[in-house]
Specification:
With 354 residues, the chain is of the alpha/beta class. The protein contains 12 helices and 15 strands. The protein has a 7-stranded mixed sheet with strand order 1-11-10-4-9-8-7, sandwiched between helices. Strands 3-2-5-6 form a 4-stranded antiparallel sheet, covered by helices on one side. The termini are close together.
Length: 354
């Protein structure tokens, strides 16, 4: 059973779209057969049934919405993306993209969907950006009269229209990622599938690229976007909702901020000279406050203590007033995002206990 976070919990949510979702998945199931040696078959004729890669997965993605797929390796994220991209046929269940069934009408799905993988090897390094797009425009069978304008628009949108004859092999990682987006936009897709889109970028470049994706894909083009990611920033900055997957099943779903608060409470960091102050110890013992970690800062005097507080900002404000009133020296006190790995582990743990 999955954990569902109501839209009204945590951060305010935008009103639900009155339009039908661009991506609709219902009870999707995919199980891959295991290749066994003859000796193994003779020893164990029945064998062990394989675990499903996707098990009864259901989700919707609306226009202008980013939905993040989270989970450990082998959780089923890539299998789900491949089914939506018509690369894999599901065993049962249904999936539609802009109203087209991924099995019965795969050709129509391919005209409205674009996968965007963090893999620059799919580009031709000895060609320029424009030559790469000309090649892929021909593969998309774009009308010759539209090709030049589509390419010019795509390069301009992603901000690399001035690269001229420079070979793609000389591009930075960020420029390659933008070229991959330009290539995806050539077919004017309604749905995009992103797999670790900022994996090869430095923190500054990744932040800039996420802002671009958010503004262009969701804001201007109103695309529906599914993002498979392992990055906290991607889940909380880019995605409107997140879906935590585990062993092919949906373990939890909801708005990123709401899901984090429900699973882990509100997390804060306090910089103090006395990490074991009696006032803090008393509140931890009383419940409602949990010490997560404490580590010494570089100067050796100050300690950074991370705590989880039930009750949100009001409870945090009351705790801070109590600690200061009790004489605990606090230089800084701020809210922090819980690590994505912890959030995923808690979502999985809660789902398996149900």
């Amino acid at each position: 059973m999955s954990l569902v976070v109501a839209e009204g919990m945590g951060a305010p949510a935008s009103p639900p779209s009155p339009d039908p979702p661009l991506v609709r998945v219902r009870d999707l199931w995919k199980q891959f057969s295991i290749v066994r040696s003859l000796a193994d078959v003779l020893r164990r004729p029945t064998g062990t049934p394989p675990s499903p890669a996707i098990a009864d997965v259901s989700l919707d993605v609306h226009a202008g919405e980013f939905v993040g797929l989270l989970g450990p390796n082998g959780a089923g994220k890539t299998t789900l993306l491949k089914i939506l991209a018509t690369l894999i046929i599901p065993d049962r269940g249904t999936a539609t993209v802009v109203g087209h069934d991924v099995v019965q009408d795969a050709a129509s799905v391919r005209r409205v969907i674009a996968p965007l993988l963090a893999n620059e090897r799919s580009l031709y390094w000895r060609l320029s950006a424009r030559e790469n797009l000309e090649l892929f425009a021909s593969l998309l069978r774009l009308a010759p009269r539209d090709t030049a304008s589509r390419i010019a628009e795509a390069l301009d949108v992603v901000g690399i229209s001035d690269t001229g004859p420079k070979m793609v092999g000389q591009f930075s990682a960020g420029m390659m990622q933008r070229l991959l987006v330009a290539r995806a936009l050539l077919g004017q897709p309604r749905v995009l599938l992103l797999d670790e889109p900022t994996r090869s970028l430095d923190p500054s470049g990744a932040h800039s690229f996420r802002a671009f994706l958010r503004e262009e894909l969701a804001g201007r083009r109103r695309c529906a976007v599914l993002v498979a990611t392992h990055r906290t920033e991607e889940a909380f900055e880019l995605c409107d909702r997140v879906v935590v997957m585990h062993r092919g099943r949906v373990a939890a779903t909801g708005r990123a901020s709401s899901l984090g608060e429900l699973l882990m409470g509100s997390r804060y960091s306090a910089w103090t000279l006395e990490p074991n102050h009696p006032a803090l110890e008393a509140r931890v013992a009383a419940g409602g406050v949990k010490r997560v970690a404490a580590r010494s800062e570089a100067d050796g005097r100050w300690w950074r203590v991370e705590i989880e507080i039930e009750g949100g900002d009001d409870a945090a404000r009351e705790l801070l007033a109590t600690l200061i009133g009790s004489g605990m020296p606090i230089a800084r006190f701020e809210r922090v995002a819980a690590p994505l790995g912890e959030l995923i582990d808690r979502a999985i743990g809660r789902s398996t206990r149900r």
